[in-house]
Amino acid sequence: MKRILAITAFSLLTLFPVYGEDAYAGYDRVTLLDSTAVTVQPSGSGAFILHKAFRVQTPKGAVNSRVIKYDYDPLTAHAEFRYATIYRANGDVINLDVTEARDYAAPARAIYWGARQIMLEVGRLQPGDIVEYEIAKKGFTYALLTAGDDEERFIPPMRGQFYDIVPFWTTEPTMRKVYQVSMPMEKELQFQFYQGECASSMRYEEGRKVYTFTATDIRPFEREPNMVDLFDAAPKLMMSSTPRWQDKSLWFHKVNEDYGSFDPIPEAQKKVDELIQGKKTEMEKIAVLTHWVADNIRYSGISMGKGEGYTLHNLKMNYTDRCGVCKDIAGTLIAFLRMAGFEAYPAMTMAGSRVESIPADHFNHCVAVVKLSNGTYMPLDPTWVPFCRELWSSAEQQQNYLPGVPEGSDLCLTPLSAPENHYVRIHADNHINERGTLRGRFTITAEGQSDSNIRRIFTTGWQSDWKNSLEKQLLAVSPKAKLLRVDYGKNPKDYQAAPIRITFSYEIPGYAIIAGDRMLLKPLVMNNLYNQVKSFLRIDTDLETRQYGFKDGCSRLVEQEETIRVPKGYTLINTPRNDNWRSQAADFEGSLSQGKQQEIVLRQRLALKKRVYDAMDWEGFRTAINAYKSYGEYIMIKR
């Protein structure tokens, strides 16, 4: 392919007068050129030329640019520096010795698959200096079991197919970004540019199809708090030579069946028989198998060499090691389900962002599907439900997935989970005396994702820490709080028995502020009590409008009721309240009043209906949350 992308850094500087150098003032660094040129072979393997040039603007930018790093996976790709040049502001030109580049293991946590980084030390830079470099890479993104010579490792899993996902957003000003791909004439390529615009073209050059996409004067993408993933909001290019998702589904099914990923082994069959003994319904069997795998296969991925990526490791490895990443945990469950007589298959999904209609393999997670007696497929995710009463984590609702089933499947979407499936209910019965001491008890119950959050101290913590952890809930309300008694049932570790239920008895001296004949106090249920399960409180509702969608942890129902018995002769100064708000995103009902028997009663019901919201949902969501928060204001009573 012609080197039409190799524009010198000095020629790019001629663009500065066009945009005005002052337009980039205040930025530590400006990218002059960011280009990628890909030549695709009939096998689907790609040869990439990555060409970049940047100008240092400030001392901070100079310090941050002393080393150039590039990440790659040696199992599926090779990368090396071709050249690197420094153009000093004083006119000097320094050609760096790229043979001095170093290749190190990339930092890793939980997944140790041997990722690498090539690094080249640039050295001391000054504002005004320009660095230009080129990296050559061949290969692809994901790995698969292969055989034959070393070059085979650069051929993509779905042989002959090419895809790429190209972010066109930046973290620093970019004067010119180019992506170009040269395809064999016989290959078709579908593409779409999302959430923005670029210049695009297709030309025939030297018996090949050349697609070029260009954007200029790109400014750093401005994020909003709690917004959806950048892939769902910022400009991006998606392309794939695979015609349909069904083709990918069929391939994914075949490659794992051919490898024998789910072949049974006697010792695992014995465990399956033991687990399903006495279970009568299909859902009882599915539940007990899913929970055992979720609770007993530890998440920790070490490199197995060939086979990381789309091929799921076989049951013998997974059941012996009792550890792995999502695909190993899902693969174990699939094998267990098959040994119990079910049809079960793997599925690919993308935790965190949307998957588009173009089959460009935008996946980062593996789950399972099981065929029910009514013929429908039910998704299961043992990776995300350890010690959770759910079988599919509702923290993954509104999430795309692609099952690898024998008949082929289109892209699927996990449904919404009703707020009632994830309720948290707090009922408090308190008494405040004339000295401002609060005494009482409250009971918290929860289900679904809320249950998992509250129960975590019992299922993953030391039993010797249980009481201290629960006491911290009261200490978050007041450092003077004293936990008198706590009742959390017979065995709170048994999460499958019933939803969590904990009752606290306590005393908080000096809880109320006394000023003459008046007292000020906050409702206990609104005073930092179990805020960990109220993820919506971390969303900044001061923001009046939104341009992009936003996310919460999960759909949720919060119901709170508190009765405060006040000393004889005291009355509520606050104006009684009765609020009601309903929208497609959230509902809120609340009331505050004084009863006939020296009781102040607060009631709230907040229903949050989604995990992922559109920007147009913001008004309804924000209004409901702000109404909920307003009940956290001080209550004033007067003698």
TrEMBL record:
It holds the Pfam family Transglut_core. The lineage of its organism: Bacteria, Pseudomonadati, Bacteroidota, Bacteroidia, Bacteroidales. Residues 43-221 form the DUF3857 domain. It comes from Candidatus Parabacteroides intestinigallinarum. Residues 272-382 form the Transglutaminase-like domain. InterPro entries: DUF3857 (IPR024618), Papain-like_cys_pep_sf (IPR038765), Transglutaminase-like (IPR002931). Residues 1-20 form the signal peptide. This is DUF3857 and transglutaminase domain-containing protein. Keywords: Signal.
